[in-house]
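Record 1 of the preview.
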Amino acid sequence: MSESLRSQLLKAGLGKAEPEKGAPKAKKRGKGGARPAAPGAPEAPSTPAAAAAKPRRKSALSQTLREQAKLIIEQRRLPRDQGDCAYHFVDGKKVRKLYVTAAQRDSLASGEMVLVRHGAGFEVVEARVAEKIMTLDPRLCLPRPGRAEEADPEYADHPIPDDLDW
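->
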């Protein structure tokens, strides 16, 4: 019963024993510490320049994909010069408004066309073009509007009228 509370807790397995002051400490791996390689693993680059080249290749590849996606958007966007109908959509947590033609508004609502980010604004493209853009850079495509019947079965008895405008 003369044991200290600390030693009793250590015996119960509720703590870690401190190494003795005279015992040598295990060396910590620093920046240049070598780790034993796993069997079959590729060897690490020996120079810092070689180590920095891999992230650059990834960023260059992602940059190339983004440029391809922007080029596709510029070539395949649908003209909306004479847009007189306002189409409201959700972008993150904001509700935004884009003026499109009546046919484009109906196609956007049905999912035949999709909105994509382009520069500081948004453009309208066909759904099959948006799928290609999605493979290149998924952040550019806005999600298609969901069906109220699919999302909320509680509101299936209360459909939204077709002629409703905001």
